[in-house]
Each structure stands twice: as C-alpha cells, then as structure tokens.
Amino acid sequence: MEFDLVIRNGTVATASDVFKADVGVRGGTIAALGAGLGAGAEEIDAAGLLVLPGGVDGHVHFDQPTGDGSVMADDFLTGTRSAAFGGTTTVLPFACQEKGRSLREAVDDYHRRAAGKPVIDYAFHLIVTDPTEQVLGQELPALIREGYTSFKIYMTYDALKLNDRQILEVLDIARSEGAMVMMHAENADCIAWLTEKLERTGQTAPFFHGVSRPRVAEREATHRAISLAELVDVPILIVHVSGADAVEQIRWAQGRGLRIYAETCPQYLFLTADDLGEDGFEGAKCICSPPPRDAANQAVIWDGLTGGAFQIFSSDHAPFHFDGPGGKKVHGDKAPFRCVPNGIPGVETRLPLLFSAGVMTGRMELTKFVELTATNPARMYGLHPRKGTIAVGADADIALWDPARRVTVTNAMLHHNVDYTPYEGMEVTGWPVATISRGAVVCRDGALLVQPGRGEFLPCGLPAPARPKSAPAPVLPF
Ligand code: URP
Ligand code: ZN
Ligand code: ZN
User: Fold this and answer.
1) What is the mean predicted confidence (pLDDT) over 243-271?
2) Atom of ligand 1 nearest to the CA of 342
3) How far does the centroid of ligand 3 lie from the alpha carbon of residue 381, in Å?
4) Which of 6, 174, 307, 445 is found 20 to 30 A from 232 (Cα to Cα)?
C-alpha cells in the first residue's frame, strides 16, 4: 500500500485555498495531496464533506488547580475527548504558577495531571503570577527554551494579577527570549470598587457580575497593556476580548503599526448580559470574565473577526459544573457573584457555532474560518506548520465536516464532563463527523476510537509573530 490512510473525494480548505483533492497519509503526516492517489491501508470517502485542518484551540483550562475550593470538571481525558468531537486536534491549556511557588513545579505538576489521558496532542502555556528574580532570571528563560514559548499574565484576580512594574519586567523577558505573552486585560481596582459598591446594596445575583466588569474596565486595561508592550517593544496577544471599546483600542494600536494581536471567544458572539440575568442562580452558568455584553456589541466582535482585528478564535473552555461538586454552587446556590467560579465550557461547540453562524450564513469565508481557528493559533504559539494546516509534511490532523448536518446543541450530546452547556437548544448547520490526529481516526460518527494517552505533548517553537518590531531579520528556512 502506498499510504496508511487516504481521504478521497473531499473538498480541502486551508487558510488560503479551497480545492478538491485526495489526502494521502503516511507515518502520521500528510504525504501527498492530489487527484487519484494510490491505495491506502485505510480509505475514507469524503464525498460531500469538507476536509479541514483539525482545530487548534489556543485557550482551554483542563484540571487546573483553582485555590478557591472549586474544581474543574474536565481533566485531560474528558477535555481532549470533547475537543476531538468538536473537530479540534490540538489544545493549549495552562500550567499555572501558584504565588510563592516555582513555575517549574507548576509545569511538573501539570505534566503529571496530563499523563496517560489526552486523546489528541497538547502543548502548555504558562501562567506567571509571581515574577521573582529567580523566575525572571532562570526559570522562565529555561522553560521557554524547553518549548513553553507562550505565557499568560493577568491584570485582575487577586491570586493572579501583576502590577505594571511586574508586567514590564515579564514583557522584557518575553522580548529577549522570543516568547508570546497573553494578556488578561481588565482593571482590577475598578472591578473591586464596583463589586464592593454592589455588595453594599445587596446586588449580588449573577446578573451583577456583568455590572461589576464594565466595558470601560476592559478598555482601560487593554490600552494600558498596549502601552506597556509598546514601551518594551514586544508583541502581545490580548485574550478573550469582549467589548467594543477594547476592540477600538486594538484597532488603534494595529493602525499605529504595533504588533498587538487579539483573541475572542464564542461567548462574546452567542451570549449576552441577559444570559446572566436569568431567574435565580441560573445566570451563574454564564459567569465568565470578561462577561458577555449586548447584541450591538456582538456585531462589533463579528466585524473584528471578519475584518482582521482578531487573529484567533478560542474557546476559553473553563469547565465548572452547575449542580455538581466543586462547581458554580461551591459556595451555595445563593452565593454572591464574587464567590462563583468564573468560566464556561465550550471546547466542543467552538467550531460548530462559528462555522454555522459565520461560514454557513456567508458572513465569513471558509478560509478565514480555518485561519482563525487552526492556522493562526498554531502560528501564534510556535506549532506551525506542523499543526494548523493541510500541507505535505504537516501532521495529519484533519477534521471531516458535513456542512449540511443540522444539529440542535444539547448538553446530552456533548462529550465534556460538565452538567450543562450555555448553548443548550441552539440550532447549527454543519458539524464535524470525523476527527483524525496524526493519521489515527480519533472519533467518527459519534464513537471514540482511540485509547486515552495517545495524545502527545508538543514542545513549541519560538513563534514568529512574537518577534519585536525592531528585531533583526529572521534566518530564512531555505
Ligand atoms: O472566566 C474565565 N474566562 N475563566 C477562565 C480564566 C481566564 O481568565 O481565562
Ligand atoms: Zn483570562
Ligand atoms: Zn481562560
């Protein structure tokens, strides 16, 4: 046999092209693209299907220690399983440093948590919460060189946030080592002040979570993050951007030629503040930060996606049960919003929601969909061209999509370990029917076909987009 696997008669799409081709896979990588390829040990007829690069979800939280009594509902098995059923073949969760502890400890602990579980490939981002001399001078540079080439820093949350001086110091290391910095941009003092004011008047229901984190608090932090990055001359990626005002700041920075990248997520396209205002505690299901905004704001996020302000579209899957242990009700079903774990599930619904409301409505080109959900995240985090595209030599990470399949999203049909989805009842057109990772069919027609632990850890390269503006010209790979 010429190939291990041949996918025949499908329509292949990359971030630049859509074309009819067979895909020949050998040894886990794509060996040939063309018409009438030779025989494969396994063959899949993809007539009527789209053959897309497997999604790269650049922002997920699996089995991440929280420190507030809550427990994430998904580990590396259930999280990657859910990702695969949603057409994703690579995920990047976060190894989070605990203040007072070393970064290395966090990485070692996170590898232990992952061991034997993932069904698809994964890399780690770091979260730097305690940039001591040791961390900045030794650990962080060493870890970057070992393949942990992106890290997140927070401008809010007491347990995680850095002050401006610390941010500058961390940005400086990213600049000298060539790492990508992901910024959570919300002004902590604005949020704390508003939260206390709301609590004094008894306004503590889930709805007020959104009130406590207004767009202006995100705008201010976004502008500050951009300014600090400009001062240091280092690119940054602003994650989970929710508000029109923050988008304005990002466009302003990009217009000035700064290397400011941005990510948004399904919750800012498909949920609004009204979802936080459901009766009783129900709105806690949609508590995440930044919070969902309103319908007019959703339109601005769509424009940012189609018009180029955003480079990547991630899930920010942060899974907590609603009723189950350690979840949204960990402090009771009348807990003030301040005590409700932040985050919502979405690793499996990320791609179908965007495909349906974007590609199938004509709002977004198929190539743009691939760019935002696979190719660009792979580039931003040093995984391209091994991941995020369909090309000879790339890993055979492929999702076969039935663009005509109509699906009503229900939690029962999803494969995460969470007891709800915020997207219950939404109707979509287009769904991935098979997901292939390094040539192995991970899931097909609703069945999981591989064993836990087959997913490999991916050390990341230095991402080209993280190069400072004033950096010397790169060495060309030819
Ligand atoms: O509410 C959210 N987004 N939780 C996940 C943690 C984060 O800040 O991304
Ligand atoms: Zn965040
Ligand atoms: Zn997150």
Assistant:
1) 98
2) 1
3) 15
4) 307
